[in-house]
């Protein structure tokens, strides 16, 4: 990095601050504070450009002074993945916000990268539409969701957010504003210069090629623009800075119900999921929650006690042991017309048995991660027929039940290990689980972890696409200015 920018207390650093203030406006450029960090790496400056052209000027300034740039949205996933090698300028996308092009009746909408996903949904809902995207991170921006390729329960039917892309506008490492998208799309008809350089799938801890999500491969001289757009999904800002995305939108379903059933073992989940999928009920989501069981002391209740009077099936009356408390829940979301949803719900409850319950609201845990700040968060992806084997392998390696939650219908779940586990213990658990998954074409990725764990373990495991990813970084960001070190392989 340039000597003048090596410390924020040097005259050259003051000059950088002055230039950033000229580009963004005095209130929107400053020296970074302790909270302005990326996976534990503190930035030097924070710039909040007011539009795409100002953001381009920030990147040109960084290029001129050989500074690194890391984009930040709402910061909900800023501690995901590897720490960057250096963060000179944190480019905050908060002012690149708004639903910019939303023609009446259109099936697409162009949305600023810094727009909170909740605000997007609220705006679209006024016209009876929605994005089929439900990323779990509260307050996440659309750009942040795409940069991590973060998906929620609706991924079962609609795929990852990347699958809903029609096109993007992004800034390359030199500050050039590029528009890419499907051939023939009016506002996204121009192929990116980088598309002609070659490339490979992007990868990130939330999705993308690193964990088996949607990705694109650039292998020829001419590649459709959407492949370049998908390269940015899961790239954690390491291949380009998203400015806006044009996404598919759809009508809000008139009917929605959640059909839940208690489950006791991962093997039972396997059998139930197979039955649900074979029944062709067109579920919008099939979610599993396996929390850590809480053992509470039980006292013997006499048969004459008022709480069991009139309940001839109670263990205190029958003398037979009670069925153990369920280990978790399997919940299926059905969407569509009210009559159609009701008919499918009846078929589903008949399939799942008398313990199935129909609800008109999601369970409290729906669309939430099982991990908390400070935990070591894992993402497991495996063919659905082997999901139970992955859960058992994780339990065996950890020596105790581990909370697991996610999309059982597609074999993509998250799990949490206590943040207090020493790094070497986490490394041994990862090695054991990855050994089981390897033979099943599955993967286990560390989404986030305490700094000692992050430094000591392999976050991604085996990544067959790493050579192509390295090639993409070399062509799209040859000077490693964009989020260096955030991608697998230290890219």
Shape: globular
Structural class computed from helices and strand pairing: alpha+beta
State the strand order across the main sheet: 19-16-18-17-21-22-20-23
**How much helical structure, as a percent, in the residues?**
25-40%
Uncertain regions spanning at least 5 consecutive residues: 1-6, 182-203, 208-224, 295-302, 304-318
Largest sheet: 8 strands, antiparallel
Q: State the end-to-end CA separation.
A: 17 Å
What is the number of helical segments per DSSP (H or I, 4+ residues)? Answer: 13
Quaternary? single chain
What percentage of the residues does DSSP assign to strands (E)? 15-25%
Strand runs, count: 23
Mean residue pLDDT: 84
Radius of gyration: 24 Å
Q: Keyphrases for this structure?
A:
single chain, 491 residues, alpha+beta, eight-stranded antiparallel β-sheet, five-stranded antiparallel β-sheet, 27% helix, globular
Describe what this molecule looks like in 3D.
The protein has about 500 residues and is of the alpha+beta class. It has helices at about 10-25, 50-65, 115-125, 140-150, 155-160, 225-230, 265-280, 315-320, 340-350, 385-400, 425-440, 450-455, 465-475; strands at about 30, 35-40, 40, 45, 70, 90, 100, 110, 130, 165-170, 175-180, 205, 205-210, 240-250, 250, 255-265, 285-290, 330-335, 355-360, 375-380, 405, 410-415, 445-450. It is built from 13 helices and 23 strands. Strand 10 (about 165-170) and strand 11 form a beta hairpin. Helix 1 runs antiparallel to helix 2 (about 50-65) and helix 10 (about 385-400) packs antiparallel against helix 11. The longest helix has 16 residues, at about 425-440.
